[in-house]
Amino acid sequence: MRVLGIETSCDETGVAVYDTAPGGGLLADALYSQVAMHAEYGGVVPELASRDHTRKLLPLVEQVLADADMARGELDGIAYTAGPGLVGALMVGAATAHGMARALNIPVLGVHHMEGHLLAPMLEDEAPAFPFVALLVSGGHTQLVAVKGLGEYRLLGESVDDAAGEAFDKTAKMLRLPYPGGPHVAKLAKQGDPGRFRFPRPMTDRPGLDFSFSGLKTHTLTAIRKLDDAGELTSRGRADIARAFEDAVVDTMVIKCRRALDDTGLKRLVVAGGVSANVRLREGLDQACAKRRAGVFYPRGRFCTDNGAMIAYVGARRLETGERDVTGQMQATPRWPLEQLSAPDYAGTK
Ligand code: ATP
Ligand code: MG
Ligand code: FE
């Protein structure tokens, strides 16, 4: 089954074709990032995001079909991100997907953006087998999830305030780095002295798998102000702060992942979402998992952040079981907890 995937939940227009047939896999994918446009405002402007998706989506669909050497009529299904995300942005993908599916007379399905992130490592040659623990770390989410199978998700813990990516972005802003800040903070941290500051590892001194990053953000702001007052907010000082911040986030996530593996007794860890691109986070988790003889799995760099490939993959896995949207009922759900998902009804599998 060849499925077109469409991602428009935020500031990336992503399109891909995934083929479930043996020897198939990802046939083509393309991404248009709006980051440069939003950078001017220091964050995503929802109305501009929707408008840009309308401009870029159909040309990207044409490009991906050409790259896959396919005609539209050769598609067997369409999947789109139905939520969570910005409602106007979601509606562009949903309306396009439903319109195309109606014209081509093929099934269409709205999928969950975080299920896309969660299963993005399935696109790699060394894909994880179920069950596993997943750490989802993105711009809007920080969650630990026990994953039994497709659609079988049990939330183990999550951030009670800011998401990890959001904390990176806010720290970048405080350090006057461009948006989105994660990669910039990571780059600056490389030049920092790890011994100069020690920031707190929030919520690691008590049991449980929840996270909190807003206190760390305040701590970072206070440290920046102190340096500034002392006339020491030099490039060296800023790098030392970036390093202390990154160390604190990485350490916190490593501690919680170790705990989640111990609590569940599972031997595989999947890490996905934009922050999973962070090199020092990967180093920390690789080490922790090696010690426990647990396997650790990540998406390739460009599939850590938003992309169409992960949506095509999840859509294909669900569409092939017979799951689909009711004809003419497009979905755009800005808030949608991952635990509300369920496994597809495999009885429908042909
Ligand atoms: P969500 O998926 O929760 O709706 P989103 O789609 O905006 O949010 P993603 O696209 O998965 O999030 O990830 C973007 C986030 O990842 C941003 O906050 C960005 O700063 C962060 N990020 C990207 N690369 C890195 C990196 N190398 N280190 C730290 N953070 C990073
Ligand atoms: Mg983005
Ligand atoms: Fe995302």
UniProtKB/TrEMBL annotation:
Pfam families in the record: TsaD
Q: So what does this one do?
A: Required for the formation of a threonylcarbamoyl group on adenosine at position 37 (t(6)A37) in tRNAs that read codons beginning with adenine. Is involved in the transfer of the threonylcarbamoyl moiety of threonylcarbamoyl-AMP (TC-AMP) to the N6 group of A37, together with TsaE and TsaB. TsaD likely plays a direct catalytic role in this reaction.
SUPFAM superfamilies noted in UniProt = Actin-like ATPase domain
* Location(s) in or outside the cell: Cytoplasm
Q: Name one GO molecular function term.
A: tRNA N(6)-L-threonylcarbamoyladenine synthase activity
The note on the cofactor says:
Binds 1 Fe(2+) ion per subunit.
Q: What is the lineage of its organism?
A: Bacteria, Pseudomonadati, Pseudomonadota, Gammaproteobacteria, Oceanospirillales
Query: EC number(s) in its UniProt entry?
Result: 2.3.1.234
Name recorded for this polypeptide = tRNA N6-adenosine threonylcarbamoyltransferase
Q: Which organism is it from?
A: Halomonas piscis
Q: Please tell me whether the keyword Lipoprotein is annotated for this protein.
A: no
| Cofactor(s) needed by this chain | Fe(2+)
Q: What is its main location?
A: cytoplasm
CDD domains named among the record's database cross-references:
ASKHA_NBD_TsaD_bac
Keyword Metal-binding on entry: yes
Keywords of this protein's UniProt record, alphabetized? Acyltransferase, Cytoplasm, Iron, Metal-binding, Transferase, tRNA processing
What are the residue boundaries of the Gcp-like domain, all occurrences included?
Answer: 26-313
Binding-site residues, substrate: 136-140, 169, 182, 278
What residues bind Fe cation, as annotated? 113, 117, 306
